[in-house]
Amino acid sequence: MASLNPCKIVIFSGAGVSAESGLPTFRDSAGLWRQYAWVEVASPEGWRKHPEVVQAFYNERRQKAAEAQPNAAHRAIAELEKSFDVVVVTQNVDDLHERAGSTQVVHVHGELAFARGEHSGLRQHVGAEPIQMGQRCARGSQLRPDIVWFGESVQHLEESRAHFAEAGRVLVVGTSLSVFPAASLVHAASAEADKVVVAPELDSPPQGFDWLRGKATECVPPLVVRWLHEVRAS
Ligand code: NAD
Ligand code: APR
């Protein structure tokens, strides 16, 4: 059993933390999975059936993510690094946490800024650039988005679980906690940790978490001020 580290904070974020940066969530009323059938654009079946449709879906998302700016919630989370060891475990594939200044970010569903050979698995940075059909990795394999699709295995799960178990404070923000196994990470948090979840809507708030029912830019900055004050007063 890892001992609790009062100086360690884990942030677990989902699409909702980037909503106020103008990036759509998935299951809200204007969410991506209301506009697209996820099995067509975010699954190995979709890639096999029409790779050019999947490529175009992620090229558009990559361009929009590159044009978006970090919001006050991303910036407040980065601010925590002044006084805490902060690990951001995110389901998001944008790089807004990094661009706000967070230095330890674990992407469990992949990253838009990277591509990989569909057969070689060779990963390469593409930044904001579109991936073209016919574009190949160094071993000649067609490049695909380096995103975890439905049915594929999540990245960095065990490493993330260990971070949760050790954290003295856990903030869950902007996720419906409806996709597994990523959502199961919240259960790795210690019963003794200070646990907060921020979202305007939640079907089932995780047990043991204080639910701040509101938007990320409204709820996260004051929470960060409180946590920074607590640690300076201790
Ligand atoms: P899963 O069961 O984890 O995800 C399926 C989930 O998608 C369902 O539980 C439900 O929450 C949601 N879902 C079902 N129908 C939907 C619909 N019509 N529109 C939107 N959402 C819908 O998926 P799986 O097939 O069991 O695969 C699990 C793996 O896939 C996990 O590793 C997970 O991290 C990964 N994954 C990736 C993405 C992605 O878009 N990159 C999305 C979900 C899951
Ligand atoms: N501030 C905070 N939370 C918000 C905001 C906001 N401004 N707007 C929406 N939310 C909340 C919603 O209430 C919801 O609880 O963010 C959550 C978004 O949930 P989803 O759309 O399901 O997104 P997410 O939880 O990240 O999805 C998980 O599903 O399709 C896959 O791979 C995809 O990583 C994604 C995974």
UniProtKB/TrEMBL annotation:
<keyword id="KW-0520">NAD</keyword>
<dbReference type="InterPro" id="IPR029035">
    <property type="entry name" value="DHS-like_NAD/FAD-binding_dom"/>
</dbReference>
<dbReference type="GO" id="GO:0034979">
    <property type="term" value="F:NAD-dependent protein lysine deacetylase activity"/>
</dbReference>
<dbReference type="InterPro" id="IPR026591">
    <property type="entry name" value="Sirtuin_cat_small_dom_sf"/>
</dbReference>
<keyword id="KW-0808">Transferase</keyword>
<dbReference type="InterPro" id="IPR003000">
    <property type="entry name" value="Sirtuin"/>
</dbReference>
<keyword id="KW-0012">Acyltransferase</keyword>
<protein>
    <recommendedName>
        <fullName>protein acetyllysine N-acetyltransferase</fullName>
        <ecNumber>2.3.1.286</ecNumber>
    </recommendedName>
</protein>
<feature type="domain" description="Deacetylase sirtuin-type">
    <location>
        <begin position="1"/>
        <end position="234"/>
    </location>
</feature>
<dbReference type="InterPro" id="IPR050134">
    <property type="entry name" value="NAD-dep_sirtuin_deacylases"/>
</dbReference>
<dbReference type="InterPro" id="IPR026590">
    <property type="entry name" value="Ssirtuin_cat_dom"/>
</dbReference>
<dbReference type="Pfam" id="PF02146">
    <property type="entry name" value="SIR2"/>
</dbReference>
